[in-house]
Amino acid sequence: MEKALPSIPVKRYFTIGEVAELCGVKPHVLRYWEQEFTQLRPMKRRGNRRYYQHHEVLMIRRIRDLLYDQGFTISGARNKLQELVSTERERRKGSGGNGESPLEGVEAFEIDQEEFDAALHEEEDAHAEAEAPVGISAPLHGNGLSQLQQLRRELFEIRELLTLNR
């Protein structure tokens, strides 16, 4: 009898090692599946370290089930996942909706963490230069930076809520 997979802890991001344990596959398999299944796109940070979100762990478990338990090929599993997405759209259409998920296109609004960090540092530098007398480094403070940091937190919270509702 097959060993049951462990429950997924409640947290925002998972490393590739954690996902490998949660899904019962090796990390190199996860990296390969990223190439084969376009829906699987973990966030990458410096050094190309991958961070998976809850919905991606669920998708990996579904892919694993299709490949290992149901015997699908990679191509067959890819088609089956696409079929499941189409079925879900049709179900929404039949329930009085317009057939589009309220989350349609959310993937296009991904936050590139490195670009955001660079923009934040540029904002910090510009703010420090604007307030500091010539030749003196001013400590970082002010309303503009705190608003930017608050906006960042809100965007991450919104993204997390949207991905949990998929």
Query: How many domains?
Result: 2
> What is the third-level CATH name, the topology of the largest domain?
Multidrug-efflux Transporter Regulator, Chain: A, Domain 2
Distance between the termini: 31 Å
| Spatial strand order of the main sheet | 1-3-2
Radius of gyration: 21 Å
Report the order of strands and helices: EHHEEHHHH
Q: Low-confidence segments, ≥5 residues, pLDDT <50?
A: 99-111, 130-140
Strand content: 5-15%
Please, what is the oligomeric state?
single chain
Shape: globular
User: What class would the helix/strand composition place it in?
Assistant: mainly alpha
**Helical content band:** 55-70%
Strands, count: 3
Number of helices: 6
CATH class assignment of the largest domain: Mainly Alpha
Tell me the major beta sheet.
Answer: 3 strands, antiparallel
Q: Under the CATH scheme, which architecture of the largest domain would be assigned?
A: Orthogonal Bundle
Mean pLDDT: 76
Question: Layout of SSEs?
Answer:
Layout: E1 14-15, H1 16-23, H2 27-36, E2 43-45, E3 49-52, H3 54-69, H4 74-94, H5 113-131, H6 143-164
Antiparallel strand pairs: 1-3, 2-3
Helix pairs in contact: 5-6
